[in-house]
Structure to design on (352 residues):
């Protein structure tokens, strides 16, 4: 954007989702409120920041960790500030730029504010969107953070072999639906668990899982797993934890692998659940690995090379749950913890 007299720059309203105060327990809609400020559509003189118009925002369960006072040292400095807008991954369009790597009109994905317009002070951490023949909202999921998570887990961390027997929890969510489909493309037998019959039907009928079950209707996870894995599980892609993880440890094959990128059942309980089957890690000589996408952003070019053809050739389906309007973002986020979402949860702020 050409330099302008600062007094002539257009000033617009900027709706924002504000964080009320630090929380304990599950997030609630009342932990946020909506306000409207104003913002000038120009970066400050001499700044190397960029100003963006937000299009799509990603509602991710891990945002809730930033709503708490510091409990883990690695989260220090990442907490939200009460009275300020929250932020997270999103897709946006550049309105003004002081960074030579970004031009007005560029589309980006990365960390941005839950607001209509955001001034991003560290644009070097953003990804420029080069491929627009796929839905832009995909850059909050299959081509964004969730996509990096699924790609790295399957293609870099524990890569299955043809015929392997795979179990995926939270299988209809942003990451699980991708893990299952990638494993099917590799010739694996894949079973997923989800929280209602509609999601189970999605896994079996649209996403190509061999089997799926509603964990809420299973009285004994051990019995359920033996039903679908009578010979045991080769790889478990873990997102739930607790009783499900405990049951899985007792149903793994010898030398099986467990990759954990989340344990949503443990996020909002006062005391973590005790595992009874941890000795099975030794008995079955299991390999277990904790995982976060943050260590694998360097794989993004490989992800694009692999996954974009899958999308274009319709070899992979990506299910999204998009709510319209920034003001509906908090309810969509809170709904993640009761399984209200159907696929990857996204809030649409603007479509252009």
């Amino acid at each position: 954007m050409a330099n302008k007299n600062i007094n002539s720059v257009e000033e617009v309203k900027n709706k924002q989702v504000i964080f009320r105060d630090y929380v304990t327990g599950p997030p609630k809609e009342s932990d946020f409120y909506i306000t409207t400020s104003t913002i000038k559509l120009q970066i400050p003189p001499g700044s190397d920041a960029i100003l963006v118009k937000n299009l799509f925002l990603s509602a991710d369960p891990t945002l809730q960790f930033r709503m708490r006072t510091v409990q883990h040292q690695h989260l220090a400095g990442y907490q939200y500030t009460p009275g300020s807008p929250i932020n997270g991954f999103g897709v946006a369009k550049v309105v003004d730029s002081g960074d030579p790597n970004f031009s007005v009109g560029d589309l980006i994905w990365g960390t941005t504010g839950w607001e209509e317009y955001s001034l991003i002070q560290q644009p070097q951490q953003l990804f420029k969107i080069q491929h627009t023949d796929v839905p832009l909202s995909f850059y909050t999921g299959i081509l964004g953070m969730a996509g990096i998570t699924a790609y790295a887990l399957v293609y870099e961390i524990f890569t299955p072999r043809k015929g392997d027997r795979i179990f995926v929890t939270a299988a209809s969510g942003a990451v699980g639906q991708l893990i299952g489909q990638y494993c099917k493309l590799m010739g694996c037998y894949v079973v997923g668990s989800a929280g209602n019959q509609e999601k189970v039907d999605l896994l079996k009928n649209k996403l190509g899982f061999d089997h799926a079950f509603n964990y809420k209707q299973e009285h004994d996870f051990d019995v359920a797993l033996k039903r679908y894995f009578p010979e045991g599980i080769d790889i478990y892609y873990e997102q739930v934890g607790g009783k499900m993880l405990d049951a899985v440890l007792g149903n793994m094959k010898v030398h099986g692998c467990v990759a954990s990128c989340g344990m949503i059942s443990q996020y909002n309980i006062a005391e973590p659940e005790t595992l009874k089957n941890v000795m099975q890690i030794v008995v079955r000589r299991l390999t277990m690995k904790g995982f976060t996408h943050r260590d694998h952003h360097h794989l993004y070019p490989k992800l694009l090379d692999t996954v974009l053809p899958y999308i274009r050739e319709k070899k992979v389906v990506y299910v999204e749950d998009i709510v319209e309007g920034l003001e509906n973002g908090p309810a969509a986020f809170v709904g993640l913890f009761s399984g209200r979402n159907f696929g990857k949860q996204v809030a649409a702020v603007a479509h252009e």
